[in-house]
Amino acid sequence: MKKTSTRLADGRELLYYDSRDDTVRDAVDRRPLDPVATASEIRTDPLLGDSVAVASHRQGRIYHPPADECPLCPSRDGRQSEIPDSDYDVAVFENRFPSLAGDSGRCEVVCFTSDHDASFADLTEEQAGLVLEAWTDRTTEMAALDQVKQVFCFENRGKDIGVTLGHPHGQIYGYPFITPRTALMLRSAADFLENSGGRNLFDETVARELADGVRVVLEGEHWVAFVPYAAHWPYEVHLYPKKRVPDLRRLDDAARTEFPQLYLELLRRFDRIFGEGEPPTPYIAAWHQAPFGELEDFQLDRNEFALHLELFTIRRTSGKLKFLAGSESGMNVFVNDVPPETAAERLREVASK
Questions:
Q1: What does the alpha-carbon distance between residue 134 and residue 88 come to, in Å, rounded to a whole number?
Q2: Using an 8 Å Cβ cutoff, are 290 and 250 in contact?
Q3: Cα 340 from Cα 25, distance rounded (Å)
Q4: Do residues 229 and 238 lie in contact, with contact meaning Cβ atoms separated by under 8 Å?
Q5: In the annotation, is 116 catalytic?
Q6: 135-154: per-residue pLDDT in tens?
């Protein structure tokens, strides 16, 4: 992998990740851009104790542009975009409309491919492996920032999820705090460690799913994918490396090599869940990594956390979405319409031939 760092016209950082070491990236962003002005502010809810990012400047971000005006496509035929070069493998840049900025963290956009009409599932194993290297590199770089306590790499896919740009891309958030969902996992892991005689909650969860087998969707030598016992979403899969590591930086070469094989197969199965002729399945793919630094508040070493990816769709059946209504939105108590065992069976049925 070759990494090239440059700057956009307004000073934001842009990075190219290329599979060829001899690739030259010297295109200049010639757009007359004003400096980025953000109004990101972190506020703490006194009742719940969680944090809310208030970012009013995001109201002006680009919304469903036509394909020939996509800001994530390469700059071609006189049309300038966020990517000055005429082609790219993987590109990462600071978001022009970030939810988090400055002392409040950092937000980046990850363009998986220059092909506007592709999806992550269309990538080759080599391309997907390059994306993994980009995620890992950005995790490493953000870990060195004083204002970042946790890095979240994710992809929102589909208009039903709320995606405003159709080009295949994801995002990376560098939070200045430990997110509520991660904090719940850390507390559960700490309690389990104390009450089980020192066993690891993540290891036990993976071992239980492997032993049971009924919810396992896909298994390789170094990774396993399963529908969790108490899945929140109609179709939800958790992908774990069998060797527990706290974050992407700690994956070994064998796990890195196998990851694209399993992950691409999972994404392709997701698009086949509801049968032929159905539109692409909307989904969220979310990497969960251990926060940085010491975790004294949780009385837990960060190495007790297990890196994993959670992939889920908000579609519960053909043409119908799973809305977060009263119980989910009001009380954070999910009601799942699809038994996890049924979801796992369906995801096994739609395996690639």
A1: 13
A2: no
A3: 47
A4: no
A5: no
A6: 999 999 999 999 999 999 99
Among the listed residues 155, 123, 166, the one whose alpha carbon sits nearest the alpha carbon of residue 259: 123
Comparing CA positions, the residue from 262, 240, 261 lying closest to residue 251 is: 240
Find out whether 150 and 291 touch, Cβ atoms under 8 Å: yes
For position 68, what pLDDT does the model report? Answer: 87
Give me the amino acid identity at 224: V
Tell me: pLDDT of 61 over 80. Answer: no
For residue 159, pLDDT beyond 90: yes
In the predicted structure, residue 173 carries a pLDDT above the cut 80: yes
180 in Cβ contact with 152 (< 8 Å): no
The pLDDT of residue 37: 81
Q: Dig out the tokens for 216 from the structure.
A: 């396992």
Per residue in 292-338, pLDDT tens? 988 989 999 999 999 999 999 999 999 999 999 999 999 999 999 99
The one catalytic residue in 57, 64, 116, 169 is 169
Tell me which residue of 49, 30, 52 sits closest to 41, measured CA to CA: 52
Q: Is the pLDDT of residue 264 over 90?
A: yes
Angle between the N-to-C axes of helices 125-143 and 253-270, in degrees from 0 to 180, rounded to the nearest 10: 120
Strand partners, 226: 216, 238
Distance CA 309, CA 125 (A): 17
